[in-house]
Design goal:
It comes from Dietzia cercidiphylli. The protein is an alpha+beta fold. The chain is built from five helices and eight strands; from the N terminus they run H-E-E-H-H-H-H-E-E-E-E-E-E.
C-alpha cells in the first residue's frame, strides 16, 4: 500500500509540474503584444529533478496568472524596506549637547542652572543632564575622572584653564570649548588656545 501511495504522489507531482510548465508555455504563446515578463517560483512540492525553481513567462495584456501564482509573483516583486538603525549618541556628545542648549544664559557666580551659571556650575549641570554626578568646584572636577592630554580631547571632556584650575569648560570639538566665562558675559564658545591650558579630565 505504501509503495502505491508513493507512486501516486510522485505521479501527481509530475502531472502538476507538467501542468504548471504547460500553463507557462500557453501564456507565452498567447501573443507578444504588450507582453511583460513575469517570474514565479515553482512550489516546493512540485520541484523535481530537471524542473527549474522558477519559471519566467511573457504575460500578454489581458491574461491573468492563476491566483496562487499571481500572489507569488506579487510578493516577489514587492520591495523590501529596512528601517535604518537609530544613530547612537555617545555620552560625551550628550554632555556637550546639554551644555550647548545653555549658550546665551548669563554668568552668575555660584549659579548651577538651569537659567544661569558660573563655570563649574555649567559643567556640573551638563553632566547631570547626561546622568553623571561630578564634583561642584573647578578644582575638584579637574582632580577627578580620568586625566586626558590636550591632544586626546573628545567632546564632553572637562577642560581646566589658568593656574590652579580656576576656570573650566566643556570641550566642544574643533579646538573649541563651551563655557560660562565671567560676570557680565554669557555661556558661549571659545577657542581652547584662547586661555592658558591647565589640564583635562573625562568622567565617562
Amino acid at each position: 500500500m505504501g509503495a502505491h501511495s508513493i507512486k501516486a504522489n510522485s505521479t501527481g507531482r509530475r502531472v502538476a509540474t507538467a501542468g504548471l510548465l504547460a500553463a507557462g508555455a500557453a501564456i507565452a504563446g498567447a501573443g507578444t503584444a504588450a507582453a511583460a515578463p513575469v517570474t514565479v517560483d515553482v512550489p516546493v512540492e512540485l520541484r523535481l529533478p530537471g524542473v527549474p525553481a522558477q519559471v519566467t513567462v511573457d504575460l500578454p495584456e489581458g491574461i491573468a496568472l492563476p491566483a496562487g501564482l499571481a500572489q507569488a509573483a506579487a510578493a516577489q516583486a514587492a520591495p523590501v524596506e529596512f528601517a535604518a538603525p537609530a544613530p547612537q549618541i555617545s555620552t560625551g556628545q550628550r554632555i556637550l549637547d546639554a551644555a550647548s542648549t545653555r549658550v546665551g544664559s548669563p554668568y552668575v557666580w555660584g549659579a548651577t542652572g538651569p537659567n544661569s551659571f558660573d563655570c563649574s556650575g555649567l559643567t556640573s549641570w551638563a553632566y547631570k543632564e547626561a546622568g553623571i554626578s561630578i564634583p561642584r568646584t573647578s578644582q575638584a572636577q579637574i582632580g577627578g575622572g580620568t586625566q586626558v592630554s590636550k591632544a586626546d580631547l573628545q567632546p564632553g571632556d572637562i577642560v581646566a584653564f589658568y593656574s590652579g584650575a580656576s576656570h573650566v569648560g566643556i570641550y566642544a570639538g574643533n579646538g573649541q570649548v563651551v563655557h560660562a566665562p565671567y560676570s557680565g558675559t554669557s555661556v558661549s564658545y571659545a577657542p581652547v588656545d584662547s586661555m592658558p591650558f591647565y589640564g583635562a579630565t573625562r568622567y565617562y
